[in-house]
């Protein structure tokens, strides 16, 4: 166990110190409030004030608020439908700060990363009547363009930071020129060369393939998405997350960059489909994993807390459960993880690692057979279980029931291990 803990500790340290993973994680975390705000807009227009698929079917007076749907649709578009803009800016900014420091870099790397992304994005279109117009497609702005935005943000800002270290490329201004103006001129040539590089990449890609870079990257990422959304792929990720937790390292933080990159675009694609009245495409997505693999916190320890209330005869364990039930209902479980403790626990560590895998598989089956609707809305991760299932599936009661089922399964899985653990405690072994 010590050897495993040491290995995972080193991997965890590498992940936390890797600028690309850290930048992606920070960008998604920073954008999260906007994602949730957009989800509220979708809930309002599609679940509440909607006479064809929402509460308006059952209670027509709420349709008096239909005039507000324009505003809530605007919120959804400005956040979820434009997520590539925010994430591209965020990643570019984070890498600029990492390489040059916050004081020197400022927010210019973010602006440059955004401009570089636009330089490889299709902006000229021809309408059905042959008329030409300029704009950016919803695919590029939304979840489909995320991979391109992330790639270009990293490439552009890394190149920019490298060029900024070349004094020969800096335009030096007299000392009496204000620092902000002088710094702008220093960045002029490096910024131009970055945009020249990215626009050339976009041009060559289009000439060679007949496709824009976004389409090429999307096709290249399809196999990775297919592997990541398969049950074996999900199991590998979650076992790694739980093994990190088992040795006291925040597993979700360690792999959040991987999870966000793979699964958040799929949730947002489902949200867009749901908002447009279409059938969501992706069974496995970020919301699905939160709903079936993280209720009550990592390790779905809400199942353990409930099992302690029902079966435990030890006052110390019941005291920990009493302290943990309220945070657990909001998917916060540090009191359990470090209070029982789960860390380096040879008995409870087994269900701690594998129960999320079991509940995810059950959730997958419930969704695959059509009982549980596909998760299509991002809700705050602190939303209590069952309510989370209801909201995440677009206000479907089957979502709430499905989450209640996996909570019951988690209790059943944890119970025998809890009984064995308490026997060992009674013997003074633990």
**Strand-pairing-aware structural class:** mainly alpha
Summed up, the helix count is 19
Walk across the major sheet and give the strand order: 1-2
For the biggest sheet, the summary is:
2 strands, antiparallel
The low-pLDDT segments are none
Proportion in β-strands: under 5%
Gyration radius, rounded: 25 Å
Topology order in helix (H) and strand (E) letters: HHHHHHEEHHHHHHHHHHHHH
Identify the overall geometry: globular
Tally of domains: 2
Give the rounded overall mean pLDDT.
89
- Helicity, in percent? 55-70%
The count of DSSP E runs of length 2 or more, i.e. the number of strands, is 2
What is the terminal-to-terminal distance?
16 Å
How would you describe this structure to a colleague?
With 430 residues, this protein is mainly α. The protein has two domains: 81-222, no CATH class; 231-426, no CATH class. Helix content is 69%, strand content 1%. It is built from 19 helices and two strands. A two-stranded antiparallel ribbon has the order 1-2. A hairpin with a 5-residue loop joins strand 1 and strand 2 (132-134). Helix 4 packs across helix 6 (108-119) and helix 11 runs antiparallel to helix 17 (349-368). The model has no long low-confidence stretch (mean pLDDT 89).
Describe how the helices and strands are arranged.
Layout: H1 2-17, H2 19-48, H3 69-79, H4 83-100, H5 102-105, H6 108-119, E1 124-126, E2 132-134, H7 138-141, H8 146-164, H9 179-209, H10 213-228, H11 231-246, H12 251-275, H13 286-293, H14 302-311, H15 315-329, H16 334-339, H17 349-368, H18 387-392, H19 397-426
Helix pairs in contact: 2-3, 2-4, 2-12, 4-6, 4-8, 6-8, 6-9, 8-9, 11-12, 11-17, 13-17, 14-15, 14-19, 17-19
